[in-house]
Amino acid sequence: MPKLTDKSIVITGATGGIGAAIARALAADGAAITVADLSQEAADNLAGEIAAAGGKAIGVAVDVRERAQVRAMLDKAADAFGRVDVLFNNAGIAQTRPFLDITEEDWRLVTDVNALGVLIGMQEAVKTFRQQGGGGKIINTASIAAKQGYEPLAHYCASKFAVVAMTQAAARAFGKEGITANCFCPGVVATPMWDVIDKGFRDNKLTTKENEAFDTFAATAVLGRASQPADLVGVARYLASSDSDFMTGQSLMVDGGMVFI
Ligand SMILES: NC(=O)c1ccc[n+]([C@@H]2O[C@H](COP(=O)([O-])OP(=O)(O)OC[C@H]3O[C@@H](n4cnc5c(N)ncnc54)[C@H](O)[C@@H]3O)[C@@H](O)[C@H]2O)c1
Questions:
Q1: Which residue ranges form the domains of the chain, and what is each CATH number?
Q2: Ligand 1 pocket check: which of 12, 18, 96, 108 to mutate, most ligand atoms within 8 Å of Cβ?
Q3: pLDDT digits (tens, 9 = 90+) for 151-192
Q4: How far out from the chain centre does Cα 41 lie?
Q5: Does the beta carbon of 259 sit less than 6 angstroms from any atom of ligand 1?
Q6: Do 156 and 110 contact (CB within 8 A), yes or no?
Q7: Is 150 assigned a catalytic role?
Q8: Residue 91 CA, ligand 1 centroid: distance in Å
Q9: Using one digit for the tens of pLDDT, what is the confidence trace for 194-243?
């Protein structure tokens, strides 16, 4: 088991499906978790649950599109736990739109959260890592949509391709300082995000039944089932731990075998 005892780990989108599973698991491993999400109340609730189970956590409200809020999130984590060792840029949104219907407003909404939010998170984390004397890990949640363009999710896919590009660029920019940047790519995970995507398929008359889009996409995984948030815990633990110290700039597919690269 990789050692995470007393590592200070900040997770954005931490009250959502994947983020909460990672937050709970890494807290149980001994890490001190900053649970960051849009809602202070939801963040406090999960931090309280972790503390009640014997772990260390604080809740912080953040909109990842807002640099001042991201800066404050990292400063609160450093104040509470002495430093920041790892930032998971995990917050994200999805939207189902047929290709010809994507508006400028749709594009800006999705790319502001999923791509600009990751850029700001990485920039501010590097400042924190430098203040601490160097070293640090950035872990971004990308997607199978970072490797394949799926209709009708073109703008979502573009935002996730951007995550891979920025991960590679940051790895090259900061490697000599001992700062690594990697991402993991989930497939079709049963979380509230897929409820939104599935409803979007129905609203756009691309499917007729609830979970039809979810089941159709999930059926392409060679391991024969959809992902659960718990399926992403192992890769998150590995990337947060010193076991991954000599890896940077990589995108790890953890999708049950949907996309082979
Ligand atoms: N569910 C999937 O199938 C799947 C597949 C591949 C990648 N992903 C990615 O995994 C990550 C987590 O998604 P999830 O499936 O857990 O979805 P989710 O909707 O359960 O969680 C997403 C979380 O991000 C938060 N968030 C949204 N906008 C934010 C903002 N501006 N600032 C701060 N937080 C914000 C939400 O409040 C929510 O808690 C996302 O980046 C998503 O794109 C999900």
A1: 8-188+228-254 (3.40.50.720)
A2: 18
A3: 999 999 999 999 999 999 999 999 999 999 999 999 999 999
A4: 20
A5: no
A6: yes
A7: no
A8: 5
A9: 999 999 999 999 999 999 999 999 999 999 999 999 999 999 999 999 99
